[in-house]
Amino acid sequence: MSRHELWARLWRWIAAFGLDLHVLRGALGALPSVLRDYRQFQQQNNQHGARYAVSLNYPLLVDKGKTAGLANPQYFYQDYMIARKIYLRSPERHVDVGSSIEGFVAHVAVFRPVEVFDIRPLTTSIPNIVFRQCDFMQPPAELTGYCDSLSCLHVLEHFGLGRYGDPVDIHGHLKGFAGLRRVLQPGGTLYLSVPISHRERVEFNAHRIFSIQTILEMAQEQFDLVCFSYVDDSGNLHEAAASRAGGIDPHLELEYGLGIFEFRKRA
């Protein structure tokens, strides 16, 4: 293990306990500039008769150095792309399994009802969102053939790792995919996104990282690939990179990218 890899692992362990060294370093560097801005604002306030009550009780030290770009390109691109496809297709019943409520699900709920299944509880009532707590490694039998449109975005990689209170199961991703397959009607569309890499691995208990071939093999019995897009290691979107399994570049070497798969279940 290289020194860089050792430091990266140490930093992740420290962050797991709530201490983000990247934020700490950025905050220390930005502190003098923020204090200068504060003094300048106070001087202007005093010149105008101390019109405003000003405190330094809510410091946000690192925002000045950020760009106006995307905080997380993987989530942004998948949410935008798949919500757009659902809007254009207007399926009879769209179901989501575990995707971000504040991200993708909120996008879809703007223009249509969406049923959401998640192993975690949701205590807030949100218009256009019908929620049901459910373990999709073992979905109930009454959900068989339940919907004609189904999404599971940046979720399947967590199944079986216990991170969200799910049972620890080395085959959790396979059981989860089988659950997705069972719930979708023949002819229906599955939108699936997962981390992809040329180096398949499990980073316990955060996530699994799949090879593209693994996902295609999981789907090959009952699904046809309609479209494959991906976000590369630099956060760039490659939309509609392939419209069939054989069209995917076999030399696509990513360390931690995002594969966005659109499958159609065979009749």
Summarize the structure in words:
This protein starts with a helix and ends with a strand. The chain has an 8-stranded mixed β-sheet, with helices on both faces. It has a two-stranded antiparallel sheet with strand order 6-7. It has 2 domains: 3-65, no CATH class; 73-265, Rossmann fold, CATH 3.40.50.150. It has 6 helices and 10 strands. Helix content is 33%, strand content 24%.
The largest sheet is:
8 strands, mixed
Count of helical stretches: 6
Q: What fold name stands as the CATH topology of the largest domain?
A: Rossmann fold
Question: What is the rounded Rg?
Answer: 22 Å
Number of strands: 10
Structural class: alpha/beta
CATH superfamily of the largest domain: Vaccinia Virus protein VP39
CATH class of the largest domain: Alpha Beta
**Number of separate structural domains:** 2
Kindly, what is the distance between the CA atoms of the first and last residues, rounded to a whole number of angstroms? 49 Å
Q: What is the N-to-C succession of helices and strands?
A: HHHEHEEEHEEEHEEE
Biggest sheet strand order reads: 3-2-1-4-5-10-8-9
Oligomer: single chain
Approximate strand percentage: 15-25%
Shape: globular
- CATH architecture field of the largest domain: 3-Layer(aba) Sandwich
Defining traits:
267 residues, alpha/beta, Rossmann fold, 2 domains, 8-stranded mixed beta sheet, two-stranded antiparallel ribbon, 10 strands
